[in-house]
Queue: 2 jobs
Job 1
Amino acid sequence: MRLLQQAAFGPTAALDQRIRRIGLRVWLEEQFQAQYPSASNPYPDLPLKPTNAPADCDNNTTVPDVPATCFRDTYTMYPLQAWFFKEAYYGEAQLKHRVSWALSQIWVVSGVDTQQSRFMTEYYKILANNAFGNYRTLMQQMTLNPAMGNYLDMVRSTRTAPNENYPRELKQLFSIGLFELNQDGTVRCVENNPCQPGDTPAATYDQNVVNNFTKVMTGWNFCNQTASCPNIAVGTVNYIDPMLLNAGVTTVGNNRHDLTAKTLLNYPGSTTTNIAACTNCTTLPNIATYANNSLNQALDNVFNHPTLGPYVSKVLIQHLVTSDPTPAYVSRVAAAFNNNGSGVRGDMKAVITAILLDPEARGDAKTDPNFGKLREPVQLTTNLARTFDVTAASGTGQSDGVFNGPTNNLLTNMAQSVFYSPTVFNYYAPDYKIPGTTMLGPEFSLMTTGTAVARANFMNTMVVNNGVAVSSPNVPLGTRLNLSELQALSAADPTGGQLLDALNYKMLNGTMSAQMRSTILTAVTSITQSATPTATQTLDRAKQAVYLVATSSQYQIQR
Amino acid sequence: MKESRREFLKKSGGCALGMVGLATQMHHMGMMSALAQKTIDESPQGGETDYKALVLIFWSGGNDGNNAVIPNHSDATISNYATYAALRSNLAVAQASLLPISVPRMGGLTYGLHPSFGPVAGQPNNGIHELWASGKLAIVPNCGTLVRPTTKAQMSQSSHPKPYQLYSHSDQVAQYQTSISNTQVFTGWGGRLADQMNLTRNPNGLVPMVTSIAGAQLFTSGQTTLPMAINDSNTSLANVLNPTFSGTGATARRTAWNSLRGIDLASNYIREASEVTDIAMAANTALQTSQDTTVTFPNTGLGRQLRQIARLIKTRTTLNVNRQVFYCQMGGFDTHNGQIVNQANLFTQYSQAVRAFYDEMTAQSIQNNVTTFTLSDFGRTMNPAAAGTADVGSDHAWGNNMFVIGGSVLGGDFYGMNTVVNQTPFPQYVMGGADDADSGTGARGRWIPTTSVDQYAATLAKWFGLPQDAGTLASVFPNLANFPTTNLGFLP
């Protein structure tokens, strides 16, 4: 069960039984091959639209929108959100979905600044396509992705008006972070290693490096040349094909790429640390060749930095398993990042396998007081849904996967509106420490007095009030939990014992304490259950028990 | 930690707040702080009856202060409007549109505020420009993150300590919010202020000293202080932390839900989740009898945040608090492009919301006890980014102009230290010059701050009542002693 919280969006009974039969390694191999997204839940297939919403798609009733939901489905993240939750609830390729979601919280592009869900879909595909690929390929494709290019301004960065945004975040957030790390993820200092009190952390780069990478990354723009860009559509901006150097430029004199020499990161073992000025850039094709070669050299330079492995490994461990992993755990995963056993660096399959099969992730019930992580709202909601066989509000068929509108919904109340990260720094930072402690707890920055109550109220809606009701147009089918199995257990055992046993297994990996159990039982048995129980009685008892486990601090923590 | 907290509980009797999770709550409301314990022992009455509030408005993304406060004169001896207009090119605000302010500190020269700080069609009030003339608005130009005073020459000296990761959003946000620029720390100066003052000033407070209307923020975290975080005024105070228990068995469910928070606290993460909820429930009880505002607030993100703060201030007697620190935030200032339109809208939102808040405080007759102030990630490059009027913006830079507003503010002037060039607080607009951190032909105009965040924050903290002994000051602002003055003078 713990595995299915770490490697999936929560357990289902069927998947739990299957893994017990075939074993973890076989399941991982299956997952590495599984079709994604599910055949029944393809990516939203929406056309690019003009950046100025046309009158029949602008959410303004002067001219009726056609269809009425045109604006929502085009100019908000709603279709992608609905797709995301359906894939989490029902998809077979759970691990790829889970890792892609984690990567989306490292390589952040947000619907706050990204206009159309179609723009975001292409970005998300890159995450998913590389979730089991190589980190270097992810770096390459993401650098040239137009949604990222727009979000972090690379699409506007030119020789004469350079923009540092993407080159800086590429290093700070997407690859090596601010400080040199040992393989075990501990920070290196200028004076000593390991650091002593008062030492200065060793910076991975300085402003001069940012300036030089900025030069390398000048001149790309939305792809508008038919020969290179199959997805050009008249009247729209091409957010599908990768960005193109000097797109729209017709003369060498208007070249936008910086042709001067650049200095790259210099670190022990670095090979190419300089890019020479271009010597043959007298034609646009030559400039494009020079620029693309330079970009490859710059990305290789980052990719081979010794800090990349521990940085990426630690953040992925935090997303999947535990917020404050031991240095030894980070070191073992970083070793797999640095070399997959066949001499390949950046192999994501090796990294994910190392994270999930590590002794710190597996084994008996976890008693280390610092093990685990706060369930972010996405995990809280999806884990609950899968645990209780989520359906549409009618009780049959699939949920529509939405919790109401795109930006004002039950997830928003808990501070995690999917695909609307507030900034490029994600919903929470990997180095966030819980106030008054020395513990890393990134997701805890979303745990405030306000969201703590919102979490409880979410459970009241989902469990006690029977879920999200149908509400036109944003909630066409609704969402409901299936508690029938629990009702049967309640009917079979008037003490509530079997009901609690099932929840202990399904939700808490068998960690429920005697005190917790007796506290919940008191509340459950306060509800009358006749000798021949009615369906209402058993449902009320099941709701009582599920609500109390689901809102407990014990369940807020994945461990 | 756990054992000592339980020990404390036993000694204290543990019934004052009537909550199962009392232990955890005590911890984060500051009662476990040995330092705070010492302070209360020395305090004659254990508290005071006066009231003061600091309200931080964080301009998230890095506001371009160069277009907030603009030279509006033609004095050729210092940077004037022509200097400004030449360097800003198509990012320049038209001189005719500027809202004039006369600045004693600059020899009575006229400067200009961005036009959005005045009356704007369709908005509820006249904005903040008027508060300059009435002496309630002060500006601290070229304020920023520093470890110690820094000159252009020292920029290139590796031995001279400089803020880590200049021009990086997350790091510079952290440095503004922690007031510590030489190393990463995990407490903010708002939280540390509360660590020091909670027990003496709010000994029987029913809510934490620090409240955020914009989620958990580094600024609000102390060693022992957890903030209260609540939604904006779209939710009433009575409902903002009120859990819903519906259906059959609701009473027993609520009882069990409260009890569960006291169980299994050996897991540190479980304990922390319980602590946050404990604080929420204690506050919820106190917030059931709250009051509403009378002045019209703009229905914007900041307007709603400030309105919620105004409600809390109006309810201060019920909440039994004498000191409060508030955090609110408005985003969208990372204007690498599209700055002209977007920044004007943001300034309108700021000006309208803050003026409504000031007017509401006046209506509550508490305006002299409440001060709002700004922070931001950093300033932005004088030299524009990207070309073309529609797309023009600016990049990450350093020193920035801060706004302080309140009835006690000694407004109508600039405050802060002198730049090296012209001996005024306002930077000299020369690309690559003595006030520019950049050099050479590619210099962008990133002003080296002449006033540190530490000095700015300490001035606010002194007014707030932070004890001024060296030990207390150093515990909240460890680098303050590196600077020549600890009080910039914009508050009494």
Note: Residues 1-48 of chain B have pLDDT under 50 and may be disordered.
Job 2
Amino acid sequence: MTAAAADVAPRGRVGDPFSSAWRRRLPLLPALLYVVAITQLPFLVSIYYSLTNLKDKTQSLIPEPTKFVGIDNYKQIFSDPFFRQAMWTSVKMTVLAVVLSLIVGTLFAILLDRRFLGQGLIRTLLITPFLLMPVVAALIWKQQMFSSLFGVLNKVLTFLGFNSVQFISDHPLGSIVTVLVWQWTPFMMLIMLAGLQSQPSDVIEAANVDGASALGIFRQLTLPHLRRYLELGALLGSIYIVQAFDAIDVMTGGGPGSTNVPYYVYQQSIGGGFRYGAASAYAIVVVIFSIVIATFALRVLSSLFKDEERA
Amino acid sequence: MKRGARLGVGERRSVAAGIGVLAWVVGLLWIFPVAWTVLTSFKSEQDASAQTFHHGLGFGRYSDVSHSTAGTLSLQTAFMNSLVVVAVSTLVVLVLALPAAYALAIRPIHKWRDVLFFFISTKFLPIVASIFPIYVYAEKWNLIGTRTVLIVLYIAINLPLAIWMTRSFFMEVPRELIEAAEIDGTSLVNQLRQVILPIAAPGIAATALLCVIFAWNEYFYALQLNFANGTTMPQWVVSNVSTRGNFLAKLSAASTIACLPVVLAGWAAQKRMIRGLSMGALK
């Protein structure tokens, strides 16, 4: 935000204060203004709401702020056990989904890095879950796989002589994480595949000639090379997965143990709670956490980015 | 040493075959839920619920879901809404992103890096944190339930990604070509049209496809701001879940219809998709 604002000051040459610099900036301005207007302005409004006791008493859907309450909403956050629970659910959901999809995705990438018959076809099939609508992915798992009435998994379990499992009601978090991992593994796989394929082959050859074992090569050459790709995958995956909403809405509707922070904020405001002031305060807290994560993410991204320029 | 190497080659061949088989098994298992859903979409409702195959397969469920009962959201309405929203938003994204990418890649402005990172930082902001103000203003301006509100928001979702992605493709246009065009006094629009676009076209197509995929699959805004007849395909799929009677085969047919366009688009764009997904950091 600040960077963009600072850049608006004209920096043309002496005697040519506007034309050159502004002519360069002009093509950028429509996109920049659009993004600022649609993504930044609502936040300023949210900050304002978070300082009021805005509520929807009349259900008119356009409530007016009633009173300025300062930071009361923010104080309340720390005494709200449900918000703490939602935070903990968010952390568990994101970490589990990111780590598992990264591990499985890396294994898939190692498999696909070899030449075999139908390599392209398998790669194409594997990315399919990532392309599905999140809503459809969640519905497929809920209705076809997990369902206690007609789910394939329970059919298999009972066929093998086990008791059937109420996956979604007994393990809501696990069920949602399963769907997230299923969808995000292909994404991680693509990133790790790019990492594996960018590995300089001459170094590996040299290590081979020197008689290094396959495991040794993997641990000492491949893994360090992949580290930044793992970081990139983890961070980009976190950005999206921390915001998970669709799968929760479709699978559990925010039942116990599966309400993450975005879903909780939604429940508190337009999802039925109508406590707009308080919900806005929660939202701002979420933004602050996101900024912390984003700072790390952008650092990783920018280091990859500089390497790309040097190359 | 020689024997070892030869053994290594033989070993590698059997390992390679094993890896091929393993990859096939893993790949087929991974898409089993998708394959099963497609299969279920051709079954009768009784067979679908029992996970059996007594009545044979057919297109009956596809015809069921495309003929909706009066008063409910029809496939035709939802499809047209999705089509318009996705097409218009993607088009506007490209119109805004191409000049912006030019200013960030080809004749970079001062502090172009900060601007680029500002764009991407907006992707880190949780959508849920801004939904209420957006809702209030959409209501004030009578935009709730319209395609317009979704178009406006989907442009904002996809624009940062598109700028990063097109910038990374623009970087590959040979400098000499652009300099030659500049010396000839070619205008920006003509430079884009005659020099840059022909070279970056495949990348721009991949960018457009990625925007299409994200817009087509978007559910949160569509649910909150557009619940009735103006809404899009994800909501239509969900509307096929019924609390009375069997719906599994119909739901599967609806899911297949709703996902097929973007799955095909994604398959087509897969080679270049990675660059967009990694914000241009990977090739």
Note: The domain at 88-310 of chain A is CATH 1.10.3720.10 (MetI-like fold).
